[in-house]
Amino acid sequence: MCGRKAKKPLSDCGCCNVIILVSSNLPDGETDDEGLSQAEENTNFKMTKESNVIGEVCVRGKNVMAGYIDNPQANADAFLPNGYFRTGQLTLVGRLKEVINKGGVKIGPSEIEHAALSHELVLDAVCFRITRVMYGEEIGLAVKLHSDCEKGENTEKDLKQLMRSKLSGLKVPRKIIFVDAIQYNKIGKSLRARILQQFAEGPL
After folding, report:
1. What strands lie across the sheet with 136-145, from one edge to the other?
2. Which of 60, 108, 121, 150 pairs with 90 at a CA distance of 20 to 30 A?
3. Which residue range or ranges hold the AMP-binding enzyme C-terminal domain (predicted)?
């Protein structure tokens, strides 16, 4: 066991289509864990709203690209009729293509990861999708503990118990894998697809 606690990072939001940074939360703790509060200058946000569907972040401003050259279909897919660019990111929860569909409920991996990172033993965590032909999608979680912490037989049990206090039971990972390292690409994004390929197989 160890008592080390990771410092809470700031969350930034952006993509190359809108010159990287779009929004950031505040360092003074006033922003809740579920959103980004400080929009960049000359940037307007819009959330798509459909019944029982997680909203998609759309953005318009001087920092947004004008469109794709000679590709009207790509522009039609990427922009709303009022000029807002569809980022593919979701309000509160993460990227659209990373969402886990568990029993018809759409679950964003970042929410699961944030809950896991609140445990004092956890240094890093990445949530991934487990697809089962008969039962649909389940939630998996790869966890790296602090280097001076040893995995005890109750570590997984304690972690799940803490996550149940922060999440609905439906969102608690079915499968938790303890790993020595979590891989990231050159710009600091976790290689979620590689983790999925590595750990999504096997018994739940």
Report:
1. 122-132, 136-145, 175-178
2. 121
3. 111-189
Instruction: Mark whether 20 and 74 lie in a shared domain.
Output: yes
Question: How far apart (Å, rounded) are the C-alpha atoms in residues 191 and 9?
Answer: 19
Query: Could you tell me which residue, 196 or 147, shows the higher pLDDT?
Result: 147
**Cβ atoms of residues 75 and 68 within 8 Å:** yes
Domain count, the chain: 2
* Residue spans of beta strands (DSSP E) within the chain: 12-15, 20-24, 38-39, 43-47, 56-61, 85-90, 94-95, 100-102, 105-107, 122-132, 136-145, 175-178
Per-residue pLDDT band at 30 (split at 50, 70, 90): very low
Q: pLDDT tens digits for 31-62? A: 444 444 455 556 676 777 665 566 777 888 87
Instruction: Give the number of residues written for the chain.
Output: 204
Beta bridge partners of 132: 136
- Beta-carbon count within 10 A of 190 CB: 19
Same domain? 175 vs 85: no
- pLDDT number for residue 9: 53
**138-168 burial string, b = 16+ CB within 10 Å, else e?**
bbbbbbbbbeebeeeeebbeebbebbeebbe
Supply the range of the domain harboring residue 154: 100-201
Environment class of 127 (CB within 10 Å of its CB; exposed 0-12, middle 13-18, buried 19+): buried
Q: 35 near 25, Cβ under 8 Å?
A: yes
Residues 68, 14 within the same domain? yes
